[in-house]
């Protein structure tokens, strides 16, 4: 049987994590600002449902990657507060994963939004 209170509590904890991500993490704030601009551009360029699905998926993936990266970095800092070469490698790999996904999202954005912009300019 599903315990509704436990489910609601889990959602509350997850919501707190999302709020903390955007409240305290500078890179997450940048991703939030860029996502807002992309959404505004999407409305202006009148994206269709498939284009919206693609763009919103990219936004969600970047935000999720940033959340995982933040969690990994905080865990590393907790486990090893000092400098350690293995911890540095772990943190670099984690932030590198976010960069890979962010660059992919930019490429997807250029294809989707750029294609729409070219259509708009050609009338």
From TrEMBL:
Family: Belongs to the bacterial diacylglycerol kinase family.
Main location, first listed in the record: membrane
Regions that span the bilayer: 30-47, 93-118
Name this protein carries in UniProt: Diacylglycerol kinase
Keyword Kinase (UniProt): yes
BP-aspect Gene Ontology terms: phospholipid biosynthetic process
InterPro entries cross-referenced by the UniProt entry: DAGK, DAGK_sf, UDPK
Gene Ontology molecular function terms on file: ATP binding; kinase activity; metal ion binding
């Amino acid at each position: 049987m599903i315990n509704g209170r436990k489910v609601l509590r889990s959602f509350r904890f997850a919501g707190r994590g999302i709020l903390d991500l955007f409240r305290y993490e500078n890179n997450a704030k940048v991703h939030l600002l860029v996502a807002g601009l992309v959404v505004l551009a999407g409305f202006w360029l009148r994206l269709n449902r498939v284009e919206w699905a693609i763009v919103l998926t990219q936004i969600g993936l970047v935000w999720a990657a940033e959340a995982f990266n933040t969690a990994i970095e905080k865990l590393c800092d907790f486990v090893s507060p000092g400098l350690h070469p293995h911890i540095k490698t772990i943190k670099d790999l984690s932030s590198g994963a976010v960069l890979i996904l962010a660059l992919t999202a930019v490429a997807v954005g250029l294809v989707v939004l750029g294609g729409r912009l070219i259509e708009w300019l050609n009338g």
